[in-house]
Structures are given as structure tokens and as C-alpha cells.
């Protein structure tokens, strides 16, 4: 087992448990660096490509191209050159754009992302498909909902919790508060990924990975406030852009159909609100 990370967002302390396993090796390096990748991937049968810049709000196309699309190309090249058997890629629900069908199944079309981030994720999916069919690998593409949980450093739970710590009486919420999305606890996410990789699959398979429900941002804020034992918090909405979005490129309604995953016997143990609660507890030091 080998982990490659440039530690721009991560922390070696998070690998303390894994480091006690003699089979584990850590390589400090970058997913865009050919030498780092070849060093990490050598001898691996399965590659989990999770490296990315996850900040959807960044509108600089060059950032997403280098850190999301180009890095995927680099990892695929290294994997194909090392005779990797399975390639697992974490894509995003943003590839669907403003889907008219909710919950949205994997076969929905057209895939029309409204952010540069989503565009680079969709392009990366195409790269994974092309490499797997032409270079003898099997690929799994996970289109993730909003993943929350311990050690997160960005996202709605982190943002709102920090704001409430700073001012427990007044909470600024981006957009109009009606943005509705699915949230999944990271432990449920990992369980699903492991189950899919162990299952019989075609050459390339895409799976939606999220909770079975979706909740709006105001409900998220109420859930976090309650978990922090705060009362009478006044919500202030920024109004957002383009009809109440939190930012340019923000998909206002996202809810994934996870029927395909359920056929493998996987079910999330937490719904969206429960995932938010667990993530908040962890951020407050009440859990791992």
C-alpha cells in the first residue's frame, strides 16, 4: 500500500494508523510529476486517483486544467506504464450540470457542467475511459455527492461551523439558502468504493455515490446550529448569483440516483442530515 501526497492540504498525522502497518509506504510528491508517480505506482495493482483541487469556486481554468485534468493524464500514464489492473477515479456530481431529472441516474444526458471544475472532471472521465479501453485496465468512476467528515478542511460544514464559532448569533449563508444537495459521510463513501472495486465489473463503470436524500442549505445551517447547541441564530442570506446560487458555477439542486450501487448490496448508513451531524461533531472535537 502506497500513498502519494504533496501535503498541500493533508497532514502526515492523519496517516499515523496506516504508518504502523509494515506494508504501508508514503511518498511525498505531486500527481503532476512523472518521477514521483512512477516511484509511487511501481508494483501496484490498483490505483485510487483522488488527487484534485476540489474548490469549485475557483474560476481560473488553468488551475483546474493543471491540478485536475493534467494530473489525471499523468496518473493514467504512470498506471498504464506499470501494468496497473484497476484504475479508480473520483469524479463529481458536477459533471451533470443542472440536471432536469432528480434524482439523477448515471445514464442521464446531456452531461453539461456549469463550472470549470465540473468540465475538467468530465474531461478526466473521458481520459479514464480511453486509457482503460486502449491500455488494458479496468476503470471505476465515482460521481461523488458532497463528501463530509473528519479532517475536512473546506466545504459547507467547515465554513458554517467556523462562522458560528466567530459569531454564534448571526450566520451568513451564501446564496438564498434553498440550494439543495446530497451529503455523504466519508466513512460511507470509503465503504462503497471498496465494495465496488471488489465486485465484477465491465471495462469502465460509472457509479453515483451519495446519500439517498438531499437537503437545502438552510437545513444544513439549522442542523449545525443545533449540534453546536446554539439557539436563536439569525440567518443572513447573501442572495447569491444567478437565481440564488452561492457562487458562479454552483449547481443549485443536486440529488444522485444511487440505485446502481444498491444492486451491489451497498447502502449508506447515514442520510444527509446525519452525515452533517457527524461531520460537525468531528470538527468540534466530539469524534475522531
Task: Report what the structure shows.
It is a single chain. This protein has 288 residues and is α/β, with parallel strands linked by helices. It has 2 domains: 2-147 and 184-209, Rossmann fold; 150-179 and 214-250 and 270-283, UDP-galactose 4-epimerase, domain 1 (Alpha-Beta Complex), CATH 3.90.25. 36% of the residues lie in helices and 17% in strands. The strands form 5 sheets. A 4-stranded parallel β-sheet has the order 3-4-5-10, sandwiched between helices. It has a two-stranded parallel sheet with strand order 1-2. The two termini are 23 Å apart.
Structural class: alpha/beta
Which CATH class of the largest domain applies here? Alpha Beta
| Individual helix count | 9
Main-sheet strand order equals 3-4-5-10
Shape: globular
Named at the architecture level, the CATH assignment of the largest domain is 3-Layer(aba) Sandwich
Report the radius of gyration as a whole number of Å: 19 Å
How are the secondary structure elements laid out?
Layout: E1 2-5, H1 16-19, E2 25-28, H2 34-41, E3 46-49, H3 61-81, E4 86-92, H4 116-135, E5 138-144, E6 146-148, H5 156-166, E7 170-173, E8 180-181, E9 183-185, H6 186-198, E10 204-209, E11 215-216, H7 217-227, E12 234-237, H8 259-262, H9 272-283
Parallel strand pairs: 1-2, 3-4, 4-5, 5-10, 6-9, 7-12
Antiparallel strand pairs: 8-11
Provide tags for this entry.
Rossmann fold; 288 residues; two-stranded parallel sheet; alpha/beta
What is the compact description of this entry?
Helix content is 36%, strand content 17%. It is built from 9 helices and 12 strands. Helix 3 packs parallel to helix 4 and helix 5 packs across helix 7.
